[in-house]
Design brief:
The protein has 140 residues and is α+β, with helices and mostly antiparallel strands. The protein is 22% helix and 41% strand. The protein has one domain: Hotdog Thioesterase (Thiol Ester Dehydrase, Chain A, Roll). It contains 3 helices and 6 strands.
């Protein structure tokens, strides 16, 4: 069984439209924050990855399904885990819940690149710390 990263957040006024409903694009920001916190939890940051490995993690694609709305001052939880991984990239599934009910499901394809934009092998230090969060699906 794999581990999950969890990130909690509160919906602020700035996240909503005039009706108090979270604006759809803001869910992407919430997911990014959760991924950033996941990196911090294993001892890394985007800045540290740039400095130590001369690498960046970029979003190649994102598939997101909105199931229900979130509203002003809702408390949300984002659960993240690595669904599959290759030598240069991984798919992270992220699920946003409100009161333990799924409101958003997403799958984000993330790629490690060098400063020239060329895909590179995931550094071993990062790979080994992410390993407990992998599902069983590992690709060559």
């Amino acid at each position: 069984m794999h581990k999950n990263f969890f990130h909690n957040l509160k919906v602020y006024y700035e996240d909503t439209d005039s009706g108090g409903v979270v604006y759809y694009a803001n869910y992407l920001k919430f997911l990014e924050r959760a991924r950033t916190e996941a990196l911090f939890s294993i001892g890394f940051s985007n800045k540290k990855i740039q400095e130590e490995f001369n690498a960046l993690i970029i979003v190649k694609s994102c598939n997101i399904e909105y199931k229900k709305s979130a509203f002003l001052e809702d408390e949300l939880t984002i659960r993240s885990f690595v669904k599959s991984i290759t030598k240069t990239s991984f798919f992270m599934n992220q699920i946003i819940t409100k009161d333990e009910k799924i409101i958003v499901e997403s799958q984000v394809h993330l790629v490690f690149i060098d400063r020239n934009g060329k895909p590179i092998k995931i550094p071993e230090d990062i790979y080994s710390k992410f390993k407990p969060y992998f599902c069983d699906t590992i690709k060559a």
